[in-house]
Every structure is written in structure tokens, then in C-alpha cells.
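User: quick one - fold this with BIS(adenosine)-5'-pentaphosphate bound?
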Amino acid sequence: MHIILLGPPGAGKGTQASFLQREYGLAKLSTGDILRAAVASGSALGVQLKSVMDSGALVQDDLIIDIIRERITHDDCAKGFILDGFPRTIAQAEALDVMLHHAGTTLHHVIELAVDDALLIDRISGRFSCASCGEGYHDHFKPTLVDGVCDVCGSHEFSRRADDKAETVARRLEAYHEQTSPLLPYYRALNMLRTVDGMASMDEVTRAIKTLLSA
Ligand code: AP5
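Assistant: Sure. C-alpha cells for the protein plus BIS(adenosine)-5'-pentaphosphate:
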């Protein structure tokens, strides 16, 4: 099964992709996580990526397309994958169509998580994650069960993303509306787009996605 989760920054793509990974045994391909790992490596490429990502702009298409083209050949993708953060431009969507066609397969679901901009700011400004295992949390919507201790791995170290500052979030939202939202009519025209109310609770969003996947 090949699934795209579409939606603005903070819509819950990563949260729901983690659920789908656990529930269906699919690989979770988060381009944001892949790029942040490149930044953390301190390579020359990582330094370049950091300045683009910290500005809230999108990284160039050819680089991301090459990353995904290579990544979907890994063994963990054999059962299928969830794309979280890709495609983000029409050029990326067209390249994905070609990749899947060459691999003799296709896309099965494109799910939009629809959330108003005002709520996204609250979502993003409260977000933090475990520095050890990467589990995602939120100050209000998903706090750790025990204050300061990761529910999953017990670590006491947490981090917040450099691009989650208010001014960068505004630029990321702009990039979404200008460059990524044209993917909605693109997939609608292919009769693939299904929309879920991303403003519902996490569990309700999960249930709505499961219903779509089983239809
Ligand atoms: P990326 O990491 O993909 O960031 P994003 O798309 O901006 O999305 P986020 O990770 O911010 O949000 P999310 O939708 O995953 O929400 P989450 O589940 O965390 O990309 C970062 C940068 O990398 C880009 O700006 C760009 O520079 C570059 N990049 C990446 N991919 C690229 C590409 N393809 N092309 C070019 N450049 C690319 O949820 C947010 C918070 O809300 C969490 O705290 C969560 O706990 C909470 N929450 C989630 N769901 C709910 C709910 N239903 N109710 C209440 N709280 C909720």
C-alpha cells in the first residue's frame, strides 16, 4: 500500500504516519526527518539544507526527488510506504508518478489533513520531541505521561525544531499555500484525493483514516 499524507505544517502528518507505520507495518518516509538527519550529520550538504529549512522555504525539487527515488528501493518499503512531506510541488508529484510506474506499481491513497492556519500555529508552537527516540509530543495536546520522561524510551532529553519559531512558521505556511496546495486539485483531478478533518482529536483523525483505507 502506498499512501501520501498531504497537509500544511502542523496538520498532523507525522503523527498519523507514525500510527500507520505501527498499525500496517508500512515504511514511514518523512522527507523532513531525512533532511534533518542530513543537517545533523554536519556535512556540507547539511549546512546548505539548514539555511533553506531555517528560512521556511522548500528545498530544491531535484534533491528531494533523488532522495525518495533511492529510499523507496529499501527493503522496508517492500510492504508499502507512507509519504509524509512528499510530494510538495507538482514537479515532485509528477516525478513520483514516474518512479512508481517504473517500479511497476501505483499510488493507492492520497489523504489530505485539513486544518485552519490559526490552529496550526498553536500546534507547531507547542511541539517537542524526544531527543533519543524521536517520539513526538505537544505541550497541551499530547504531553508526556510523566513530566520530563519520554513515554516510549524513558529518555529525559527533549528538543524543539529550529524552524518552529513563529516567523519561520509563517513562511512555511506561505510555501504550503503557494507551492503545495496546487497538489489538491492535481490529485482531485485523478480522483485520488480524500479529505479528513485534521482539526478533530488525534484518535478521531486516526479512525477517519482507517475508514478510508478499508473502503
Ligand atoms: P517537515 O518536517 O515535513 O515539516 P512540515 O510539513 O512543515 O510538517 P510538520 O512536521 O511541521 O507537521 P506535521 O503535519 O507532521 O504535524 P505533526 O504530526 O508534527 O518539513 C520541514 C522542512 O523540510 C520544510 O519546511 C522544507 O524546508 C523541507 N522539506 C521537507 N520535505 C520537503 C519536500 N518534499 N520538498 C522540499 N522541501 C522539503 O503535528 C504537529 C503538532 O500537533 C504535534 O505536537 C502533535 O502532537 C500535534 N497534533 C497532531 N495531530 C493533532 C490533533 N489531531 N489534535 C491535536 N494535536 C495534534
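One thing worth noting: The longest strand covers residues 109-114.
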